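Researcher: Re-running this chain for the archive, since the previous output was lost when a drive failed. Same request as before.
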Amino acid sequence: MKSKKNRYRPNREKQKARVMHRFRQVLWLNLVGIGVLALSAAFAHGYHALLELPWLQLEAIEIKGLQRLDRASVLNTLAIPKTSNLFSIRTALLAKRLEALPWVQSAIVRLDPPRRLVVEIAERQPFAVVYTTTFLLMDVSGKLFLEVKPESYKNLPLVTGLMGANFKLGDSISAESFRVLSSLLLSLDKYKASIPLDSVSEFRWQETDGFTLYTTRGGIPVHLGYDHFEQKLMRLHSIMKFFSERQWWGAVQAIDMDFPRQAYVKGQFNTHNGI
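Model: Regenerated structure tokens:
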């Protein structure tokens, strides 16, 4: 009787082939890894060599749009070494640094071949000095961006009552109060010959009553309300002229202009004044 072949006997040829296949795979992976490392090292060496090329080093920085900021402050903020390579400059990061400066509203930093960096700055435009718990400069968008001394900005209106003590740098006043203030100052600008800004010491805002301005001469409150400022200021000009010509201005205590076609003047007038 013939003996049966052992079907479970290992096939040595197949095992040998399988081992060789795995060996080739491992060898191939190792060679690929070595190649990648070598290539990376070559790229790194080439990159560093590229950074050291003199014809790729920064040669000049042009700064545009400066009004109140000085060039030295901008350069210190950029903090770019003189020997910087163009490939090492991150323009978006530099723009972000500049926009952290209080006076900078927006900044664009770009490379201008062959070896120049251009910085374009849009500065904030001051609109008023706002008093909360301290004096803060407000820009034309209503944002409070810088703590200041009011005597340094006598050419700007001083506004009080716009916000509570919780407001701080970086905050913005309400859209409604900013709209009313803008309308008032625009109207006042039309009458600056007869009612100059330096004749007003303070613009006080109240949510329920609108704006009241206080005159520099005598500290007289002049209530103007929320709207129709142009007509009210025209009447106020007539009233101021009337009292000044008769030298009665010192007797005036308050003026309420928040009426459609008239004004209310409060003061200590005697019968000799004819009022």
